[in-house]
Write a structure and sequence with these properties.
The complex is a heterotetramer, with two copies of chain A and two copies of chain C. Chain A is of the alpha/beta class. Chain A has 14 helices and 17 strands. Chain C starts with 6 loop residues before the first helix and ends in an 8-residue tail after the last helix. The chains are: A alpha/beta, C alpha+beta. The structure holds pyridoxal-5'-phosphate (2 copies).
Amino acid sequence: MKGGFDANVIRQDFPALKRMVKEDVPLVYLDTTATSQKPKQVLDCLNDYYSNNNANVHRGIHTLAEEATAGYENARITIGEFINASNEKEIIYTRNTTEAINLVANSWGRTNLNSGDRIILTEMEHHSNLVPWQMLAASIGLEIDIIPVDDNGLLDLHVYEQLLDKNPKAVCVTHMSNVLGTLNPIKNMAINAHDHGALIIVDGAQSAPHMPVDVQDLDVDFFAFSAHKMCGPTGVGILWGRYELLDAMPPFLGGGDMIKRVHLRDFDTNDLPYKFEAGTPAIGEAIGMGAAVNYLNGLGMQSIWEHEQDIVSYAMDRLNEVPGLTVYGPEAEMRGGVTAFSLDGVHPHDISQILDGDGVAVRAGHHCAMPLHERYKLVATARASFYLYNTYSDVDKLIEGLHKVKQVFG
Amino acid sequence: MKGGFDANVIRQDFPALKRMVKEDVPLVYLDTTATSQKPKQVLDCLNDYYSNNNANVHRGIHTLAEEATAGYENARITIGEFINASNEKEIIYTRNTTEAINLVANSWGRTNLNSGDRIILTEMEHHSNLVPWQMLAASIGLEIDIIPVDDNGLLDLHVYEQLLDKNPKAVCVTHMSNVLGTLNPIKNMAINAHDHGALIIVDGAQSAPHMPVDVQDLDVDFFAFSAHKMCGPTGVGILWGRYELLDAMPPFLGGGDMIKRVHLRDFDTNDLPYKFEAGTPAIGEAIGMGAAVNYLNGLGMQSIWEHEQDIVSYAMDRLNEVPGLTVYGPEAEMRGGVTAFSLDGVHPHDISQILDGDGVAVRAGHHCAMPLHERYKLVATARASFYLYNTYSDVDKLIEGLHKVKQVFG
Amino acid sequence: MEDMYREVILDHYKNPRFKGELDPADISYQDDNPLCGDMIRIDLRVDENNRVVECAFSGQGCAISQASASMLMEDIQGKSLEEIKEYSRDDILDMLGIELGPVRLKCAMLSLKVLKVGAYGVQEWIEE
Amino acid sequence: MEDMYREVILDHYKNPRFKGELDPADISYQDDNPLCGDMIRIDLRVDENNRVVECAFSGQGCAISQASASMLMEDIQGKSLEEIKEYSRDDILDMLGIELGPVRLKCAMLSLKVLKVGAYGVQEWIEE
Ligand SMILES: Cc1ncc(COP(=O)(O)O)c(C=O)c1O
Ligand SMILES: Cc1ncc(COP(=O)(O)O)c(C=O)c1O
């Protein structure tokens, strides 16, 4: 265990990790990439908010309304600092990463892109960073170029350079793959994109929870992530964007809070960030996300990252010992805490099912990355992923379980 | 107190109602129209979900994923039964009423409406049922007709008939006004709309929490409401729509879960209801909404309605005793538990502020209904609203507070 | 959950009965479960009384989907299409002899879905 | 919270100083707070040294917004526009002598906003 970081102590904060899957079989949770477990600090915050300060935000002047508004806006500041936004008005609350990307595609995309314009996606994108752009492309007539994934599970940056020469308007890329674990060189990709006059829109769903992120240093234009993957509740996520870009964009959804004035047949749009927050937001969940960020800050994002690096290299070593098992993606040094694999002769569903019998929770399927699986000529993989609460012992139980799988199907 | 319904007992379920606003000043919560307080049954459900069964839904086969999926889908069934949907696949989880209406405007609207088509709105709509239609109208060129509000705070149904003769494609109307409390005759309005070939889209944000709703009996086409106004958490709401309508609509947001298959440049849309639920949904909050519905069902929606009727007629009698005070909207018999009022010579902000000093939480402002306030030549009103946990004693404290306001400003 | 992998299921998975294709066939249909990539194709030959005289399945996927297809083929030998129409979810679960969560249920039901839709068209298949 | 309605605030609200309009004026500006309908207009006449020689406000709204406008008018008598530039949120709160939550702060600051934007243009006004 690096420095003061002790996953065995941290685990104690997470009620779910104390549960038994069945009698005498404790949970070994290796599915954080889908969603993380929540520490009691976040659950207590939610409960406290709903028990004491619950009110609608922004418009009320009674005590609870002021408390709720302060909680909601303070969480925005906390989250802004977490990714080093220069201004908390750049922090837009959405439901999740997916909605954040749809917001950009619809609001920025429909205003700034025209028929025949090109955008760049990659072969390793999550469906959430593919489908919104496909829908936009079909609607207004865009050309989509794709950066392929090479045999090491890395983006082919040579092709990227060539595609940039076609003058795309935007590059939409994930910071970290939720299947291969690949950490993409976003900072360099951003420099290249900007050199060619393209914006870069980053899916940070798998990076923000696991490593220090500085959107100014990365020099990206939009960055999206979800609370539920970083110790926070479901129902809330973030779109960060450069102030000038967001400020120039038309609203996405219409309704309460995103307006200054409404007449019967027209309205005036509100300022940032409210312009993009129509209707009663996920107030409790936003405040809970703030608590999650405080929790992560308390441990230190750099320490979390180092811990995960440690666990994932141990996991890859041990996985590679299992005969007939293939781990997809790059070496441990170039990836986050995600390992997707296949086992000869056993369907990933069957792997996951048998592991579940021993309390080991891994995911099986296409992990919302069908094109990436197609590229590897797979229909599904099994995926074990790691977070701040996972230990070598969790990895050992996974490996034990995999040996059992082989026995059953031997 | 009617029947077995005792608000003084029910209040005990709500932690927030036990809080002191300041030393020795208990909270008198009269702002449910903005958002309701939450019973411990719902908070326990949230806490239990996040502590024990938290996982991402639909794709996983490990124990937690199956539990989370079952919880999420069972809540859908519970909510469907609550409004008597004929099929739980007609229940779409959204963030709130506002997003539900935006979904209809964008998906149904852009597919079925063309330049020059007419739609009908009303003068009493919440911004959430105005702005999405204004945005759509500006984008594709619709004509908007408006049903005015008469001097009794009722929709002018004579004008409605005339507007229907212009062959509108849709009627967008609130079930209950969040300012006047007016309960609109939706069932008759639906018959008329359908007779003229128009769809009827109902904003149920203020009705579903307070009275029995049967979408089949009302014979409407779409119906939207929010969990946070009915004892549930923030971050989740519902769009209900007729199966054939929803089934024929294109997706709204793109991403995980709303697809069957994704290739690099195109995708196949999933079936209902998933087609409209892109990305990780508000899982915990949806389950919490199910718990809220169970809580309301336990008390009985008819009993809740009768209790509110009782409180609001008492409140109107007492408000009308206050010299210089005007309550807007119809008689108590034709409204829900909402009373918006003004007091000669005192701005609503000052009313709310002084009441807050005695722990009485009312809202002041335009309540997201600026056009309605314009119609009454007001810029703001103060609003006291009532729910299942309010009592005559709460009303008495409001009235006492209003006398104090008059004293301060006398 | 390991009892989900009863001997008989593993046996059908490892040694599938009636695996292959019939060409020509009277009825041929295939479908997949995009979530996990399970794929099943079923070919049938029927006699003048609409009784199954020959059948075969092909495809790929998890043990549950493939074993249930193999068991189903065994079971429909000589059955009429009318009788096939009566097959229910419970029949499949009885054959497998296990309980299944919602995701795995889709794996188990895929072969029945392919069979029924092939024989009667898609309106016959109501997902339960 | 009733101390929010100190005698001096109620007095300024009920008996506003410098209420009215100046026509012609060297500087005139108005703005409102759409949330609650508070509206303030301020007219100024300045001398050759850019010092306020006459000022007036008009408008409507809550006690806080109207009293703070009246107090502000009293305070800027004879001040130069340079000095007005230095007025801060805390100056207004000091005049009022109360603490305010975020929504009421907007009421209190409306007159200062109108004054500064009128004198210097909108870039001078950074909402705090
Ligand atoms: C009548 C009415 N419609 C719509 C809304 C909007 O609801 P939400 O903010 O939950 O989207 C509200 C609540 O503010 C309302 O009262
Ligand atoms: C890389 C990546 N992008 C996007 C998403 C979508 O996140 P959400 O479902 O929270 O919108 C995920 C999570 O599933 C992901 O791993």
